[in-house]
Specification:
The chain is α/β, with parallel strands linked by helices. Helix content is 54%, strand content 13%.
Length: 297
């Protein structure tokens, strides 16, 4: 199986490296980082000249880019995947985009003899590096069955969420709502504890084993206490995901009260210079209001 990989950002680069480690023949391309492309080529990838060139060399092309417009550009833009595709090419879009746009793209691809599956991921850079992402797939079940093993080299959980294109992206939006609200709840709770004179490490040790414990708490609260806001998943990307969630929810008539509140926090942080911080920096929103930092004693 010849694999193409388009998009070598903070997530795509380690994901591509994991496919190379698994022994796949990979042709890669990204227009934005010569250094990232050089890195995966040094690991064994073939250097693509364009998205079209990658498609011409591949049976399946993975796209991992920021949002819906970039996916559309990668597929249908100048020297795009569609221009180099042979009939029967499969595109697996692992970006996190709007579900309705994912469905539209799949329909337009089908008109050109290209099949498409959405497979957004959760877990951030650490899990992209160690190959333990959670991958949520939408589209025809036969495509999922064919490529589940491939995806399994990038993720420890690979789940088919529905036959309809965009089902995976819908589940990813649900995931992003839960993560954002959970981080905000941790920020609020730990601010309360610190202002009451309780060591945040004691709160962490006491709470994590009970019902309130979560993977989000385990991953993000230590970062908060260590003042480590190096991005595993940037605030600006979470703003993008929650915008897609809000747009989808509003279109469906679903109340989005908590999502809207956290989106306002994220937007405030973006406007105050923290857009490139990890989303655990939601804590900074509370700290700005209280004047109290959450930090290990």
């Amino acid at each position: 199986m010849k694999v193409g990989f388009v998009g070598l950002g903070i997530m795509g680069r380690p994901m591509c490296r994991n496919l190379l480690k698994a022994g796949y023949e990979v042709c890669a391309y990204t227009p934005h980082s010569t250094e990232a492309l050089d890195d995966v080529v040094s690991c064994g990838a073939v250097r693509g000249k364009s998205n079209a060139d990658v498609a011409s060399r591949s049976d399946v092309v993975i796209t991992m880019v920021p949002d819906s417009p970039q996916v559309r550009e990668a597929i249908f833009g100048r020297d795009g995947i569609a221009q180099g595709a042979r009939e029967g090419l499969v595109i697996i879009d692992m970006s996190s985009i709007a579900p309705l746009e994912s469905r539209a793209l799949a329909g337009e691809c089908a008109e050109r003899g290209i099949r498409m599956m959405d497979a957004p991921v959760s877990g951030g850079e650490p899990k992209a590096i160690d190959g333990t992402l959670s991958i949520m797939c939408g589209g025809p079940k036969d495509l999922f069955d064919t490529y589940k093993e491939l995806l399994g080299h990038m993720g420890s959980s690979v789940v088919h969420c529905g036959e309809v294109n965009g089902a995976g992206d819908t589940v990813k939006l649900a995931n992003q709502i839960i993560v954002a609200v959970n981080i905000a709840a941790c920020s609020e709770a730990y601010e309360l504890a610190v202002m009451a004179g309780v060591d945040p490490q004691s709160v962490f040790d006491a709470v994590r084993g009970g019902l309130a414990g979560s993977a989000v708490m385990d991953a993000k609260v230590p970062m908060m206490m260590d003042r480590n806001f190096k991005p595993g998943f940037r605030i600006d990307l979470h703003i993008k995901d929650l915008k897609n969630a809000l747009d989808t929810g509003h279109g469906l008539g679903t109340p989005m009260i908590l999502t809207s509140a956290v989106q306002e926090m994220l937007q405030w942080l973006h406007n105050n210079g923290s857009g490139s911080d990890d989303h655990s920096a939601i804590l900074k929103y509370y700290e700005r209001m209280t004047g109290t930092q959450v930090i290990r004693e």
